[in-house]
Amino acid sequence: MSLSPLVLGFALASAVTASSLVPGQDPQPRPPIIIGAGVEIVSVPVLVYDKAGRFIPDLKKGEIQILEDGVPQEITYLASSLGEDRIPLSIALTLDTSGSMQPSVKFLKEAAMYFTGKLEASDQALVVQFNESVKSSSEFTDDTDRMDAFINGLQVWGGTALYDAVMYGLDRLRDRPGRKALILLSDGDDSGASSATKAQVTALAKSLEVSIYSVGIQGFDTPRGFLKNLAEDTGGAYYFPNKVGELIKVFEAISKDLKNNYLVAYSPKRGADNTYRKIEVRVNRPEVTVRVRPGYMAAKKRRERAP
Hints:
Elements: E1 11-12, E2 33-34, E3 42-49, E4 64-68, E5 71-73, E6 75-80, E7 89-96, H1 105-116, E8 124-130, E9 134-136, H2 144-152, H3 162-173, E10 179-186, H4 198-207, E11 211-216, H5 224-234, E12 237-239, H6 247-259, E13 262-266, E14 275-283, E15 289-292, E16 295-298
Parallel strand pairs: 7-8, 7-10, 10-11, 11-12
Antiparallel strand pairs: 1-2, 3-13, 3-15, 4-5, 4-14, 6-13, 8-9, 14-16
């Protein structure tokens, strides 16, 4: 049984093939991570910190328990974002370039380029800009010069197609292997320029294995509730800096988050039935804080029509 496009997972392939290599990344003598493997797999990014707020890097599979709707599940795979076997990361850096961003665009460009400079060699990113329409930097890449050139060329004007921008970023991340994150920065709510609705965006965010990091620059109509809910629904984080000059600190925090997590996979004991499943992760260590997405939508695979 192949994976539903709305329940993305991963599995280990038996050998490295040319089609599985990430552009710009040297071949590695270890199995790649691919989408789909004949069995439905759910992958969950998990962050675990000690009481001082430091990432715990040495957890073993036996120290982690994952429950779906209260039922313990068997962990089939555990990988850390650190070390030689780190899971590659795909990021959609989604930036508001509407007219209201004019006073903040200098700080936005500076912070965005600071963030691209923090990416690891095995990571790839796509820069998305949105005002009344949505545009991106073509393909995912590890070439920071290309990304920075796109960021430097950002121009602010027009309204805010916020919902369309999130839908676009999520759709581009949908079939990417490994860990996935969408970083969303905006200073205003959707101005009515989007074709998508808030409900559609929320539903898609809950159905995909993408962690959303929301940054709301203080404005008269900053959609704090929407940004906060997106982050909480996907196991990401949200930030509302008081000054645009704090954006570099925010992007530093997001970069640290993305570099310090685990990816846990399991095969659900219950088949897909188009219901929302709650996820809980327990770690057998004292005084730890665990952050994980609260659940996912177990969507059935759509039957393909006969030609």
